[in-house]
Fold this protein.
Amino acid sequence: MSVEAAHSLHNEPHEHEEHLAHQFMNREQQDESYIVGMWSFLVTEILFFGALFLCYSIFRIQYPMAFQEGHEELSWVYGCANTVILLTSSLTMVLSVHAAQTGKRILSAMWLAATSVLAAGFLVVKLAFEWYPKFQHHLIPGVNFHWPHEQFTEVAAGKAELFFGLYFAMTGLHGIHVVIGIGIMAVLGTMLLLNHKSTQYYMPIELAGLYWHFVDIVWIFLFPLFYLIGKR
């Protein structure tokens, strides 16, 4: 077979399959490449969060009393509310992906909007009802940190400050991922409404869904770690 014939055979599927990039043989190969790429990115994120979870575990074993008292300053009610919000957002994201797969772009955009609203609600609860009171009570790690439990020694109070440092670092990093998710959904939703050619193919919505489910899963670990473990 000549080089020209082989090249023609290699490119033949491109003439028949819509939304197929030139470097792929068929849609299955293209979809698999996209998904593997996204999972490779998510693995790096897992390693990133994993280091923080490891730090938390080590310090909690070393300073159990300080961490115990730190847990008492967190409200499981707000943590539970945010868990319900994020689990609901996972459902709306699944519905958005399903709508995109079945060619219902307007419906997909509506479910993306619903997911974004729920994500924004999560941030409101986190910032207004959890973080802001911590600022008021001087529980932000730094020179103005003040531990309200008088029975604690200065050293033990320093360990409680470590607890809140991890709390703000881990929930803050997760919050940044939520903000990024809202941005992604806003862009994709707009593209769906404009019938942009990139969103005529469902894979971008599905990849956004994978990212959002990862954000939800991270919170599923953060919720018991800070709001349930150690509660009296």
